[in-house]
Structure formats: C-alpha cells, structure tokens
C-alpha cells in the first residue's frame, strides 16, 4: 500500500463493570504482527489472574486482511475476538491491537451479553483514539557524481524524503527513503534536473 492511512497516536485504556465482571479494554499502536503479539503477551503477563485475555488486531493498513487476527481466549466461539475485530475494522484504523481483560465476577452474561461487553468495550475505547496519518516509505538507492549530489538532495527534500546514508568514493552511492506514493514525482523531478541521467531504483536489501 502506497497511500497514507490512519493509525492510533497513543494507547487507550478504559474499564467497566458488567454484572460483577470487570472488563479492561486496552488499545495499542502496533506495527506488524510481531508487535501486536508482543503487546498481547505483555498484557497477559500484567494480568495473570484474569479469566480471559481476548484480543484482536489489524497489524498493517486497515485493508490488509492478511495482517488481521483475533482470539476468544476461552470465551464461547464468536463472542469476543470476532466482535472486537469487527469494531477495529469499522474504525478504518491500521496498526492497532485491542486486548480486553476479563475478571470474572460469577455471573454469566450469555452470548449476546458477551458480544456487547467485548465489542462494546472496543467501540467505546475507539471513540477516544487520536488519529494520525502514517505515510508509507520505501527505500531506494542512487549512484551519482559529486556534481550531481545537490540535485538529488534537493529532490529528496521536495518530496519529504530523507537521505539515510552515503558512500562517497569516486562516485557517490546514496541510500534514501521516499514516500512510496511520490516515487514517480521524485523521478520526474530528478530526470528533468539531470536530463535523464539519474533515477531512483529500489533497494534490494
């Protein structure tokens, strides 16, 4: 995905008591499934005596379903993780993980009550989320002469990119990050300045 997308700016936590059970809903920015699972493991470790640690995540852009996941963690199938994921998906946010910790109070909630408790907790927490835009960057390399490097630096600045490192030998090899959606624009500017001599190419590393 090359276009910018919304992500949460900060963690959110809220707590509610429903028929003597305490539900703690936690939302966390998490880029990638490794980060999402690490957050889930941390919350599980912080609440070892809880009856359930149900979770759902969208670990990449909101429309990348390959990075979606959920778990009922012992609650009846379909009553926790799936309604939590449905709330995340409906929010349009990417890179977000939700965990709802339940301390059981001795009163059964029934299927509908559980769906409302878990899904509703995430829904309420999402209302408090501050959104920010994430711009996907890609890495590129370029070889140029010392006389051309000022052109490259100017183009990188104009498209809000950044130079990561340079290898200054007889020629200069630059490693840069550019907003993925602006690669064509960057190459057009560079082509004009260099009369077609320079282009950014994908970094295979």
TrEMBL record:
Biological processes annotated in GO:
regulation of translational initiation
Instruction: Give start and end of each UPF0029 domain.
Output: 142-196
Q: Where is the Impact N-terminal domain?
A: 19-126
Protein family membership: Belongs to the IMPACT family.
Q: Which InterPro entries match?
A: EFG_III/V, Impact, Impact_N, Impact_N_sf, Impact_YigZ-like, Ribosomal_Su5_D2-typ_SF, UPF0029_Impact_C, UPF0029_Impact_CS
How is this protein annotated for GO cellular component?
cytoplasm
MF GO annotations? anion binding; guanyl ribonucleotide binding; ribonucleoside triphosphate phosphatase activity
Species name for this entry? Biostraticola tofi
- Please report the name of this protein according to its UniProt entry: Putative YigZ family protein
């Amino acid at each position: 995905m090359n276009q910018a997308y919304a992500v949460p700016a900060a963690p959110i936590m809220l707590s509610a008591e429903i028929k003597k059970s305490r539900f703690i809903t936690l939302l966390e920015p998490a880029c990638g499934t490794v980060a999402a699972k690490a957050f889930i493991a941390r919350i599980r470790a912080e609440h070892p005596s809880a009856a359930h640690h149900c979770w759902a995540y969208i670990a990449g852009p909101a429309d990348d379903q390959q990075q979606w996941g959920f778990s009922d963690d012992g609650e009846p199938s379909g009553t926790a993780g799936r309604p939590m994921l449905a709330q995340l998906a409906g929010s349009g946010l990417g890179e977000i993980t939700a965990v709802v910790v339940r301390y059981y109070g001795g009163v059964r909630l029934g299927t509908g009550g559980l769906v409302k408790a878990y899904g509703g907790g995430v829904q309420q927490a999402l209302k408090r989320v501050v959104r920010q835009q994430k711009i996907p960057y890609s890495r590129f390399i370029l070889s140029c002469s010392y006389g051309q490097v000022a052109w490259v630096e100017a183009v990188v600045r104009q498209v809000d990119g950044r130079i990561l490192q340079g290898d200054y030998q007889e020629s200069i090899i630059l490693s840069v990050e550019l907003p993925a959606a602006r690669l064509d624009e960057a190459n057009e500017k560079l082509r004009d300045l260099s009369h077609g001599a320079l282009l950014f190419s994908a970094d295979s590393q």
